[in-house]
TrEMBL record:
Keyword tags: Kinase, Transferase
UniProt name for this protein: HipA domain-containing protein
InterPro entries tied to this protein: HipA-like_C, HipA_Ser/Thr_kinase
A Pfam match: HipA_C
Length: 450
């Protein structure tokens, strides 16, 4: 049962609801398009029949004739016919895989559920209250949506990219957005704040609140907020060890800290946008493998699928192996399937997206979401990773060189931590030291003889 909205609240909300297609408008019939300018992709209809959620999708004929048509989602066939997707169990996808990648999860999912309970989403369109997928799909701002797929209610105008970005927070709003996150977690946010958070925080998943915002030069970036009850060195550690991963030769996003002295916020680019702001099609490894909730998957299955669709399989396979090694050396939480993401590289091929989230696992913190995620089996330790290097395309001698390079970079972490861009004090360094001085790092040091 949703709560009612008062006339005064409705009047306040009307001041910040865009009148063009950049606003949130919920519907059970959605036009799906690709990129900018928008190429029609097809029509999606969401259904709830006898308590079962499903969807039907039909490609637009212009896409089927398009000279640059590619596999938008591995579970869709390039046919001029209706294709159905039935939700299988709790946590299962109700829509095709690539579109399901854009549905809010983690903190964003909490926002959507709260917005429905408060009656806010009911004010922003008309959809079946029993169909959570339609609410979640429509709750994401068009300008911020992950990848190149775009969603709008049928008949709703396209968002004007020149004005759509103004529905998102600006760089000068980040302190206010952090205050809104704290208010939400303490259950004291206003409806106005909740709507602003829907625009900014629903596009990217994960348990930590991630706000898509517009930089001074008009590009999209991400601000990642950490709770006050979490260790104060967590954001600093994430920027530090992601920087060290980059120094060790890994392909990562480049992070920095906003307010490195007090209340640090992790800032990074959106890797699904190119330097001109063009949207890049996106697929998660979960979607690439068409994984179901609770399914047990192996890294060999991911490599097999990558051989079929990767633009440069050798480089991407090596990169995954190097990320796994680095994660073991720094005591990172075990990787989930959602740690591996892909961007469209053209000519029907995909490439591994830049890595992120490199930091030691802090005891007592939840680094991984667990709601309905497939289980991902990986080599459990450095010795197993070295033994399996050949399946990732590395000779043992080359694998040892990579491990030695990472160890040498990690030897610098303590003095790098004191640089202003990380701004760790000796208490924070002492808190992280036992996490880095771990069994896997010692084992790796013995293996390479350094």
């Amino acid at each position: 049962m949703t709560e009612g909205i008062t006339p005064a609240q409705r009047a306040e909300l009307s001041l910040i609801i865009p009148s063009d297609g950049s606003g949130i408008h919920c519907s059970d019939e959605l036009s799906i398009s690709l990129g900018e300018p928008a190429q029609p992709l097809g029509i999606l209809r969401l259904h709830n029949k006898l308590g079962t959620n499903c969807s039907s999708f039909r490609f637009d004929p212009s896409w089927l004739r398009h000279s640059r048509r590619f596999m938008v989602s591995p579970d869709l066939q390039a046919v001029n016919a209706t294709q159905w997707c039935l939700q299988l169990g709790e946590g299962g996808a109700q829509v095709f895989a690539a579109l399901n990648d854009t549905i809010p999860s983690g903190f964003g999912k909490q926002l959507v559920e709260h917005a429905w309970a408060n009656g806010l989403l009911g004010e922003l369109g008309d959809c079946d209250e029993h169909n959570s997928a339609s609410m979640a799909l429509c709750a994401v701002s068009d300008h911020a949506r992950l990848g190149a797929l775009r969603v709008r209610a049928t008949g709703q105008p396209f968002a004007d990219p020149r004005t759509a970005k103004f529905s998102l927070p600006l760089h000068v709003d980040l302190d206010n957005m952090g205050a809104m996150v704290r208010a939400f977690k303490e259950d004291r946010e206003t409806l106005r704040q909740l709507l602003l958070m829907l625009y900014g925080f629903t596009a990217l998943g994960g348990p930590q609140p991630k706000c898509t915002f517009v930089t001074e030069d008009g590009a999209l970036s991400v601000a990642k907020f950490f709770a006050s009850e979490q260790p104060g060195c967590m954001p600093r550690a994430e920027v530090l060890f992601t920087t060290l991963a980059l120094a060790a030769g890994l392909h990562t996003v480049q992070l920095r800290l906003l307010h490195p002295v007090f209340s640090p916020v992790v800032i990074g680019p959106r890797f699904d946008r190119d330097p001109t702001g063009r949207r890049i099609p996106y697929l998660s490894a979960r979607s690439l493998l068409q994984a179901r909730p609770g399914e047990q998957l192996s890294w060999t299955e991911l490599l097999t699928q990558m051989r079929l669709c990767s633009n440069n399989f050798a480089a991407d396979a090596k990169e995954i192996w190097c990320r796994l090694v680095f994660g073991r050396l720094i005591g990172k939480a075990p990787e989930s399937i959602d740690d591996f993401e892909f961007l469209y590289a053209g000519n029907g091929k995909w490439q591994l997206a830049p890595g992120c989230g490199f930091r030691p696992h802090f005891p007592g913190t939840d680094d991984k979401p667990t709601d309905g995620h497939p289980r991902f089996l990986l080599p459990p330790n450095i010795e197993a990773l070295l033994a399996s290097a050949g399946q990732f395309g590395l000779k043992e001698t080359d694998a040892l060189i990579e491990i030695r390079r990472q160890i040498n970079v990690l030897k610098t972490w303590k003095w790098r931590a004191t640089e202003f861009m990380f701004n760790m004090n000796h208490h924070q360094i002492d808190a992280i030291a036992p996490l880095i001085d771990n069994t896997q790092l010692r084992q790796a040091t013995l293996l390479v003889g350094s």
